[in-house]
Amino acid sequence: MSGNHYHFPHAMNTRDINVMREAVRLAADRLDVASEADLDLLAAIVFGYYWRGLVDAHKLCEVAAFAASSRVFRSNFRRATDQLFAR
Questions:
Q1: So what's the pLDDT on residue 35?
Q2: Fewer CB within 10 Å, N or C, the chain?
Q3: Predicted local distance difference test score (pLDDT) of residue 77
Q4: Which long-range contacts (CB under 8 A, 24 or more apart) does 57-63 make?
Q5: Exposed, middle or buried by CB within 10 Å (0-12, 13-18, 19+), for 18?
Q6: Residue 5's pLDDT band (boundaries 50, 70, 90)?
Q7: What does the alpha-carbon distance between residue 42 and residue 31 come to, in Å, rounded to a whole number?
């Protein structure tokens, strides 16, 4: 995340949101994605990697497009998020 988070390390500012939004848009264009479920998957992938420190929109796009195109990753990722939100 950006270096402007001295009060709370998990807070995001507008720049953070814009980078993630751009990465999801680029990945969706690259994969020709239009469904809401696929956009949600891309957004979750982008957020996960952004949270871990990958803050370049183009690199996030590459990772999200690669991960979303993998059937194994998609099934494991959806299973993990289903378990997370079932609690």
A1: 87
A2: C
A3: 66
A4: 57/19, 57/20, 57/22, 57/23, 57/26, 58/23, 58/26, 60/19, 60/20, 60/23, 60/27, 61/22, 61/23, 61/26, 61/27, 61/30
A5: exposed
A6: very low
A7: 10
Question: Is 60 within 8 Å of 19 (Cβ atoms)?
Answer: yes
Residue pair 59/30 in contact (Cβ under 8 Å)? The answer is: no
Instruction: Look at residues 45, 51, 82, 86 and name the one whose alpha carbon lies nearest to residue 67.
Output: 45
By percentage, how much of the chain surpasses pLDDT 90? 43
For residues 15 and 2, is the Cβ–Cβ distance under 8 A?
Answer: yes
SS3 at position 68 = helix
Note the pLDDT of residue 24. Answer: 96
